[in-house]
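pls design
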C-alpha cells in the first residue's frame, strides 16, 4: 500500500493514498481496532445529510463561499447516492462523543469536494474539513442529531414490518376462529379457547408495541443541531440554525423542529432511552409469541402438535426427517440481543456528565443494530413462519375433550368442591369430565351436553345461567 503524509494538530501521519478520509480518521483507525465493525449505514446517511444542509445554511447566511459550499453539497450528494461507502471506517467503539466519526465524514466530504474543484486529496487547500465542512458545527451537536435522524429512518423500516406481522397474525386469527381447543394456564389444562383468539391476542400485543414506538418519534424529531459545543450555539448564527433544520426537514420529509432548549438536547439521552425501552418491550412480546409457537408446534408425535409451522430447513445433522421451529428460534435470539442492548443504552445514557454524554457512539451502535435486526427478524418471522402456519384441528379437539378444565363450567351449577371431586376422579380413572359427571348423576345427559358445548364457553357469560343454579335438567 502506498501512503500520503497528512498533518493534523498532533503532527504528521501516513494516510492510505487511495483514501478519501484523512489524518484524524487514520488516527482513529489505528487507535480503535476494537470490533472490526463499521458505522451503521443509517448513521453515515444522517451525518452526511447534516453536512449537506449545514453547507447550504452557511451559504444562505453568507458565511460560506458559494463555490466551496456547492462543492460540499455536490460531494455530499455523491455519498448519499451510494458512492464511497468503504470510506467510513471508524469502529463504533471509539473515543467519546463520536468525534472520530464526525471527522471521518468531514474529511471524506472535503476531499471529494476538492476533487470537484480540481484539487487533490489530502491538501485541504480548497476545502478544509474543519473550516468549511464542519462550519458552525461541533461533534457535540452533529452526532446526537445524526442519531435522531438515523433512528427515525430505521423506525420507518421497522414499523411496516411490525404492521405486516400484525396483519398476518390477524389473518390466521380469522382462519382459525372456528377451531376450538383447550386453553392452558401454568401449562396445565384450562377452560376452552379458540385458536383464533390466541392469534388475535398476539396481534393486539404487537399493535401496542407499534404504538409505543411511534410515541417516541416527536422527541426524535426535535433537533439540537446549532447548539455546537455545549448547547449555547457559539459560532452558529441564529439564522443558520433555522436554515439547517428547515433543510433537513425538506430532505427527509420528517416533521423536524428546532430544539426548544439546545443545552438539554445535548445533555439528555431520554429519546434514545425511550426508544430502546420500546424495543425491549417489543422483544419481550416477540419472545413470548415465538415460544408459544414453538410449544404449540412441538412434536409432531410427542408434543402438543396443535399447529404445524412451515419447514424451512432440515432440523438435525443426525436425526433424519427432523424439522425444527427455526424462525421462532431465530426470533428469540434476536430479541435476547435487543434486550441486552437496552441494558447498554441505559448504562450509557446515565453516564452523561454536565454538558455532554460522551457515550453516544455506543448508544447509537446498539439502537441502530437493534432496529436493524428486529426489522429483519420480524419480516422473516412473518413471511417464512406465520403466513405458512396450518392448524391441526383434530388434535385441538382431542385435547379439548380430554381437558380437565371443563370441570370449571360445572362449578356454578353443582358447586366448586363437587366439580373438583369430578376432576380428581377423571384424573385417577382416565375418563373425561363428561363421563364422570354423567356416571355420578349430578346433571342429566342433555344438560351436560348443553353446558359442555365448547363454543359458548369461549365468550363472556355463565353457561346455563338462564335456567338457574344447580338445575339438574
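designed seq:
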Amino acid at each position: 500500500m502506498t501512503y500520503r503524509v497528512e498533518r493534523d494538530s498532533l503532527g504528521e501521519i501516513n494516510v492510505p493514498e487511495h483514501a478519501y478520509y484523512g489524518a484524524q480518521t487514520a488516527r482513529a483507525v489505528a487507535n480503535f481496532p476494537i470490533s472490526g465493525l463499521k458505522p451503521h449505514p443509517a448513521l453515515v446517511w444522517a451525518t452526511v445529510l447534516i453536512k449537506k444542509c449545514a453547507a447550504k445554511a452557511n451559504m444562505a447566511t453568507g458565511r460560506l463561499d458559494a463555490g466551496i459550499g456547492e462543492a460540499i453539497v455536490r460531494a455530499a450528494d455523491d455519498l448519499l447516492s451510494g458512492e464511497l461507502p468503504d470510506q467510513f471506517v471508524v469502529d463504533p467503539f471509539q473515543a467519546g462523543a463520536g468525534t472520530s466519526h464526525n471527522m471521518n465524514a468531514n474529511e471524506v466530504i472535503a476531499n471529494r469536494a476538492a476533487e470537484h474543484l480540481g484539487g487533490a486529496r489530502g491538501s485541504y487547500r480548497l476545502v478544509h474539513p474543519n473550516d468549511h465542512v464542519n462550519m458552525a458545527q461541533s461533534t457535540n451537536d452533529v452526532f446526537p442529531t445524526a442519531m435522531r435522524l438515523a433512528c427515525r429512518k430505521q423506525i420507518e423500516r421497522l414499523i411496516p414490518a411490525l404492521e405486516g406481522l400484525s396483519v398476518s397474525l390477524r389473518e390466521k386469527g380469522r382462519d382459525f376462529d372456528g377451531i376450538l381447543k383447550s386453553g392452558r394456564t401454568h401449562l396445565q389444562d384450562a377452560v376452552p379457547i379458540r385458536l383464533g383468539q390466541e392469534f388475535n391476542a398476539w396481534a393486539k400485543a404487537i399493535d401496542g408495541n407499534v404504538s409505543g414506538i411511534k410515541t417516541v418519534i416527536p422527541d426524535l424529531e426535535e433537533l439540537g443541531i446549532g447548539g455546537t459545543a455545549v448547547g449555547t450555539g457559539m459560532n452558529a448564527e441564529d439564522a443558520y440554525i433555522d436554515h439547517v433544520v428547515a433543510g433537513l426537514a425538506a430532505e427527509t420529509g420528517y416533521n423536524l423542529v428546532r430544539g426548544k432548549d439546545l443545552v438539554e438536547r445535548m445533555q439528555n439521552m431520554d429519546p434514545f432511552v425511550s426508544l430502546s425501552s420500546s424495543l425491549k418491550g417489543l422483544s419481550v412480546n416477540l419472545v413470548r409469541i415465538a415460544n408459544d409457537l414453538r410449544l404449540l408446534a412441538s412434536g409432531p408425535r410427542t408434543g402438543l402438535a396443535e399447529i404445524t409451522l412451515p419447514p424451512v430447513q432440515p432440523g438435525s445433522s443426525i436425526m433424519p426427517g427432523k424439522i425444527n421451529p427455526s424462525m421462532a428460534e431465530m426470533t428469540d435470539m434476536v430479541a435476547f440481543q435487543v434486550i441486552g442492548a437496552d441494558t447498554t443504552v441505559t448504562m450509557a445514557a446515565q453516564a452523561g456528565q454536565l454538558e455532554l454524554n460522551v457515550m453516544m457512539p455506543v448508544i447509537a451502535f446498539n439502537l441502530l443494530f437493534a432496529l436493524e435486526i428486529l426489522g429483519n427478524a420480524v419480516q422473516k418471522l412473518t413471511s417464512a413462519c406465520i403466513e405458512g402456519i396450518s392448524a391441526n384441528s383434530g388434535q385441538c379437539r382431542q385435547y379439548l375433550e380430554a381437558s380437565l378444565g371443563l370441570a370449571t363450567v360445572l362449578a356454578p351449577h353443582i358447586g366448586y368442591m363437587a366439580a373438583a371431586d369430578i376432576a380428581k376422579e377423571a384424573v385417577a380413572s382416565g375418563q373425561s369430565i363428561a363421563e364422570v359427571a354423567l356416571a355420578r348423576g349430578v346433571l342429566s345427559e342433555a344438560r351436560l351436553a348443553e353446558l359442555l358445548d365448547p363454543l359458548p364457553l369461549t365468550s363472556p357469560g355463565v353457561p346455563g345461567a338462564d335456567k338457574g343454579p344447580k338445575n339438574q335438567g
